[in-house]
Design brief:
Blueprint (H helix, E strand, L loop, with lengths): L2 H4 E6 L2 E6 L10 H15 L6 E6 L22 H12 L1 H4 L4 E5 L2 E3 H8 L3 E5 L3 E3 L13 H8 L2 H10 L3 E2 H7 L4 E3 L4 H14 L2 H34 L2 H11 L10
Parallel strand pairs: 2-3, 3-4, 4-6, 5-7, 6-9
Antiparallel strand pairs: 1-2, 7-8
Helix pairs in contact: 3-10, 5-6, 6-7, 6-10
Length: 261
């Protein structure tokens, strides 16, 4: 499957639909898929006829996060810091999008994909959605602003719980905490999300834009600051003895012996 096929862009009148299309891997994203995704977002920034964006996943899941087969993989000569900085620069396309982004969450919603969804304007979940931040189980940390968003929405307790333990929450709990605004039957998710997007697209684009910018601006400075701290922390983790020990332990099918350095 080519990179262009892993992220699809279609239109329903003034609504742009971005679909992650790697269902056999629960839409786990590779670097090539990530590049295609952000190219699509950049293209939508230049489309004045678009009034709302829907972001969804093909198959059973929205996205299980980064494909762990590529975790820690870099192009020749690229440092960890450079890799993370480039990713963060592209992630900003989510909150600079000139129109609202409505995300349709279903099945697995994990890691960086969960974090990115949290940076969007609205999240509607299917009743089968399962969300979590499993990064620490892979020896790394959440680094796409998701922990900051959870802290803003819910507070310290849940942000720490999800980021430190990797606990999976279901759609009902996500709704209870306000991480999603609606929960609908899985079979009706796409129809419900498109209905919301079409309703937004019918309204005054100027009024929607100003309302959206006010809401986005309330928490954006903190997210930017935290993502800078995440960048430094993740870079240190990749260079640590503990990270190398985890990789070695998994290759040797044994328990890792962490030393905190």
């Amino acid at each position: 499957m080519s990179a262009e096929e892993t992220v699809l862009l279609t239109y329903d009148g003034p609504v742009a639909v971005v679909t992650m299309n790697r269902p056999d891997r629960h839409n786990a994203f590779t670097d090539a898929m990530d590049t295609r995704f952000f190219d699509v977002l950049a293209e939508l920034h230049e489309r004045p006829d678009v009034r709302c964006v829907v972001w969804r996943g093909e198959g059973k899941s929205f996205s299980s996060g980064r494909d762990t087969k590529e975790l820690g993989v870099r192009t020749k000569g690229e440092s960890d810091l450079e890799y993370i900085e480039q990713g963060h620069a592209k992630t900003a396309l989510l909150w600079t999008m000139p129109v609202p982004i409505v995300v349709a969450l279903k099945g697995w919603v994990l890691g960086g994909s969960f974090e990115r969804a949290l940076l969007c304007d609205m999240r509607i979940a299917a009743d089968d959605a399962r969300m979590g931040l499993p990064e620490t189980a892979h020896g790394v940390m959440p680094d796409s602003g998701g922990a900051a968003r959870i802290f803003q929405m819910v507070g310290h307790g849940l942000a720490a719980d999800l980021a430190l333990t990797g606990r999976i929450i279901d759609a009902a709990e996500a709704l209870q905490h306000g991480l999603v605004s609606r929960v609908v039957p899985a079979a009706q998710l796409d129809d419900n999300v498109m209905e919301v997007a079409r309703e937004i697209a019918k309204r005054s684009p100027l009024a929607v834009k100003f309302a959206m910018n006010v809401i986005r601006g309330l928490g954006l400075d903190a997210v930017r600051r935290v993502m800078n701290e995440e960048k430094l922390g993740q870079t240190a983790i990749f260079a640590s003895e503990d990270y190398q020990e985890l990789k070695a332990a998994r290759a040797e099918n044994r328990e890792p012996k962490f030393r905190g350095r």
